[in-house]
Amino acid sequence: MMLHVPGVLTPSxxxxxxxxxxxxDWNDGRExxxxxxxxxxxxxxxxxxxxxxQRFGAVILAALETHPLFVSAALPLRxxxxxxxxxxxGEQYGLHVDGAVRGVPGTSLRLxxxxxxxxxLADPGDYDGGELEVLDxxxxxxxxLPAGDLILYPSSSLHRVLPVTxxxxxxxxxxxxSLVRDDAQRGMLxxxxxxxxxxxxxxGDNAELLALTGHYHNLLRMWSEV
Length: 226
Ligand code: NI
What we know:
Order of helices and strands: EHEHEEHHEEEEEEEEEEEEHH
Radius of gyration: 18 Å
CATH architecture of the largest domain: Sandwich
Helix content: 25-40%
Bound molecules: nickel (II) ion
Number of helices: 6
Shape: globular
Structural class: alpha+beta
């Protein structure tokens, strides 16, 4: 499942992050990928353990924790802390698949990457190109979102970032392990939860909604791994 999650960061949070990032020193993005990725990745990244990465990564994770749509769709268990990248002057990231297991820097923790996240930090009008293209069984999906919005997509998908031909594309990107490993099961839980929310808005609480809510939690209990 791919999902556009709007309004993860406020315009003032985006502005604060951009001001700091635009003045920062950037590294070669090939430092954080394996051999296949290094052949096709041309961009820059903030140092993984640098103070800006840690500070703004924490801001993003705190915002996600209280974003009901994101939590409902991702059912996050644990994260690889957010990183930040920048593409300009024709930079791009060719077709690749994200590694299945990643370590959390500075810890012995490792996690399975179920979902990949890209949080846009530049307005689409400020650059040309730079679309995230995700391939699935329905074909290619091109994604370029307003600053502050996030795209959630399965880490199992082939994807790429098209060349940036004007301006700069600045994003945060990260991975998470979900409570529910299977994309189809997670998608069904998301639909059920969203439908329960809409029914509650339309009709208020009643016995049938209580039964459906119980059904949701029992499916989550059946399918989740903690
Ligand atoms: Ni990727």
